[in-house]
Amino acid sequence: MSTVLIIDDDDAIRQAVSTILSYDHYEILTAEDGIRGLQVFDQEDPDLVLLDIKMPGIDGLEVLRMIREDRGSTTPIIIFTGHGDFQTAAEAGRWGIFDFIEKPGDTEVIRTRVRNALRQSELERENSTLRERVTTDDELIGESPAMLEIKKTIDRVAATQARVLITGESGTGKELVARAIHRASPRFAQPLIKVNCAAIPDELIESELFGHEKGSFTGAHAKKIGKFEAANGGTLFLDEIGDMNLAAQAKVLRVLQENEIERVGGNKTLPVDVRVIAATNQDLSDAIREGRFRQDLFYRLNVIPIHLPPLSQRGDDIERIAVHVLAEVCEKNGLATKRFHPDALNNLKSRPWPGNVRELRNVVERVAILSPRDEITVADLPAADPRSLSGSLQELIDATPTLQAFKDLAERAYLEAKLAENGWNIARTAKTIDVQRSNIYKKIERHNLQNPLRAGDA
Questions:
Q1: Do the Cβ atoms of 7 and 49 come closer than 8 Å?
Q2: Which CATH fold topology does 3-130 show?
Q3: Taken in order 441, 444, 446, 448, is the CA torsion positive or negative?
Q4: Interatomic CA distance for residues 159 and 147, integer angstroms
Q5: Is residue 312 a contact partner of residue 146, using CB atoms and an 8 Å limit?
Q6: E strand spans, 233-343
Q7: Which CATH code, of 1.10.8.60, 3.50.50.60, 3.40.50.2000, 2.60.40.10, is assigned to 312-382?
Q8: Gap between the Cα atoms of 448 and 427, Å rounded
Q9: Residues 396-454: pLDDT tens digits?
């Protein structure tokens, strides 16, 4: 259902236009002046704005400017203007309006122009999605037997409505698989919404997924649309689903069963049409045995399982990814075309890559930018990073001239590994390694550790 915001200081106009548009079943929002109109715009993010030009206080032209310039919004706007004031309408045109309607406005004119504006906006979103599809179809790189089988599975399941559970270590490319499924599906023109379950506090996960009504809890100053509603008609990617608490799991299970949601603090159900793709770097079988994950939810999600192997098991894919990323980085940064010496590629292929594709991409990007020559040799490659345990113990010893340096690197590597194992859940990591949570935060800051989950799966 599209949302239309009417900003006009004339109560009769607001009532009349609301009645006219109610025939087409839009959700109607109204505001009596420019200040209130901007507040509603920020809170509700409407699909279309009908805006009066002549209003006391902030007039329509200033509201239009603030929507376009200050907020950077491309939401279609139709201007109400009175008495054939085409000069004012022309002034509004430089800020990008869809159309204008002369007051009081014919019923069919209003309905037609609103429909046209919403349809044009929808077409622009579809075109944007298509352009994204054209430029990113090759992101899932690999011709190893495991990757070829995964691509075949994607081709088979994409056209269906089946739910998919993607498993694999952090950095193996789970989000890329989800995107590939969405792009090849009938839902490709609709949104793909991602939720990182590991990055959202337990007390906020239900509001994030299902939305909330104004005043439903302290701090809920306005209605919020949840991710299920935002993904309606499209795909919802629940990343790191193993970190979701049991209460939220129960509500997700109900949505999957009933295809409807209820906002936090709400008293009515809303139908949703969403395909759910989930991913985790945990063994959910262990989580089920330990009572941390619902078995019935697992069966609902695990209709089509896809497991991504670690990069170290993908043979020549390391070379393919490295060559692809090198070309991509050079083009993006305006660098001369570079290539790897065969010995450099063999060196990359020999490394264990505990950080998987994400780690490989970082290394290639670094050498692409810092290498002074067109051909990248072994000498240009960084040493196997002892901080990520990429090298042997001897390499770690060789890389540290003092005992304190060795302790620092070992502590950093240990903490980084344990955080990754626990999906960067600080409380769980602290419990696992028997360290106070406050000390974990201090060590993260001391070693300048960055949560890779916030950057998305590479």
A1: yes
A2: Rossmann fold (3.40.50)
A3: negative
A4: 19
A5: no
A6: 235-239, 260-261, 270-271, 275-280, 304-308, 339-340
A7: 1.10.8.60
A8: 19
A9: 566 566 777 777 777 887 888 788 777 788 888 888 888 888 888 888 888 777 776 55
